[in-house]
């Protein structure tokens, strides 16, 4: 398979149609759903431009184990490289987005193993994706599940979604950004309450507090998230990545420096064809046709 | 008897100069309590009594003689009361309510594991004077040292949590005095407590009162609570974190409006804007806050302190650095017994028994 990867690396080439069935490259294979143990992967949307990752460990309520997080990383790598995909949706089942990390995996670890092995280091792959990622959260998003959702750019919640950071009840603390992102999202009082008591909040409170931006009925959630992905994918991928970088910088820089970064990125959009196309189309009162260039 | 009382009072006043951390100081304060006739059901703590008697040997001869005299007399005074031996730790005394002028202090909850501080200056609507803030600091020191206490609740009266700082105290200060004397420096004691602190706000939390509430980790509000920063109406600005914590909590527009106009917001708006996390009916507020404290106190104190440190770091570090600190603290929990106990209990489907270790 690796060999085929090297030879037939170009997805868009039509001259390989005859041999396409036997010469499938790894990227294509990975994101048409093959070879994953813990997740399901496909492309959704009318134009198949929304990457779709569904966590698939129903017996464990999608508890995040190391293997699952590695596969999510692989699927994201594939979608990053895929020129068709403009946005990614991550979801779980109707009952649980991800009900935590796998405790059995962690139970007997020592501090030395954690520090030396940089435990959880690659779990933040979701937060380093350049394309916009939408978390569609139905049911439980607890502990690592809540942290995974918060690493995404946008969270849509089903009406029965529950968010929480119950690590304190296990004698530990959130380890994948929970204390940082939750506090920035919902404020100190609610974040302290959730982190110190382990109590959960529902979808409505999550929306009011700023953690999620939309709440939908359970059965409509995923399709609405894909629709949002399609809206995003209709824009320039290049410029979307710059927009996302600027918004994320708000959590890293002072306001003055953040404004400076944003201005530099804004100026940089004037070096792109897509910016010229977009503004020209506006002036000419027609639909823009972005080329991600 | 009166004369002896006067002597005790006098001697105790001399002895008791600074917040007593040692047993010796505790003895003096203990006498002070008796002199003022306060009944205290003072429980014996053998551990503390032993510790107390050990530290006595650090005293000078004169002090020892005075202590011995006081304690003998105190012992005889105590006979009518079914009370403890003469030597008590200051921590126990302070966390069981003795010797405060501006606040009431006790331990609440079924297991008496929630420290409880009630601001008690009703005529001044709990206006925060220097003495009150010093006492709050002492009470918090005591609760920090108290191994039973897992969380602290601070509240005021039903009418007012704290309706501001004491203006009379501040009226004639000069800039030189403020800067040189580091005015308000110790007012942030609440924000340096390692144990979780819950503010139960009924009624007015204005100016310094609002700032005091915001220094706490969690704010529960009664339905009639009002939050505001009216310092601008007095020709000054918030000086104990109001502009910083309010803005981070409720956003720029509302914070600017409150700070620049002095207008107040009610409990519901405070909840919607993220300043408080729960709103309760006035008469249920304090018990609900204590319940929250009990939930927190049921967890490992050691790990709770780490969790609190991580959440607070969100306001000090960039997201990337905050994530790094959190990860280091998370790794560090694997060096604790409590983490292993907690996860093992989860896997074995039983209740965890944390040892704060």
TrEMBL record, chain A:
It catalyses: 3-hydroxyisovaleryl-CoA = 3-methylbut-2-enoyl-CoA + H2O; 3-hydroxypropanoyl-CoA = acryloyl-CoA + H2O; (3E)-hexenoyl-CoA = (2E)-hexenoyl-CoA; (3S)-hydroxyhexanoyl-CoA = (2E)-hexenoyl-CoA + H2O. The keyword Chloroplast does not apply. GO terms for cellular component: mitochondrial matrix. Keywords: Acetylation, Fatty acid metabolism, Isomerase, Lipid metabolism, Lyase, Mitochondrion, Transit peptide. It comes from the Eukaryota. Pfam families: ECH_1. The keyword Cell membrane does not apply. CDD domains: crotonase-like. Its EC number is 4.2.1.17, 5.3.3.8. Homohexamer; dimer of trimers. Belongs to the enoyl-CoA hydratase/isomerase family. This is Enoyl-CoA hydratase, mitochondrial. It comes from Oreochromis aureus (Israeli tilapia). The gene is ECHS1.
TrEMBL record, chain B:
SUPFAM superfamilies: ClpP/crotonase. Its EC number is 4.2.1.17, 5.3.3.8. InterPro entries: ClpP/crotonase-like_dom_sf, Enoyl-CoA_hyd/isom_CS, Enoyl-CoA_hydra/iso, Enoyl-CoA_hydra_C. The keyword Repeat does not apply. It catalyses: a (3E)-enoyl-CoA = a 4-saturated (2E)-enoyl-CoA; (3E)-hexenoyl-CoA = (2E)-hexenoyl-CoA; 3-hydroxypropanoyl-CoA = acryloyl-CoA + H2O; (3S)-3-hydroxybutanoyl-CoA = (2E)-butenoyl-CoA + H2O. Homohexamer; dimer of trimers. This is Enoyl-CoA hydratase, mitochondrial. It comes from Oreochromis aureus. The lineage of its organism: Eukaryota, Metazoa, Chordata, Craniata, Vertebrata. The gene is ECHS1.
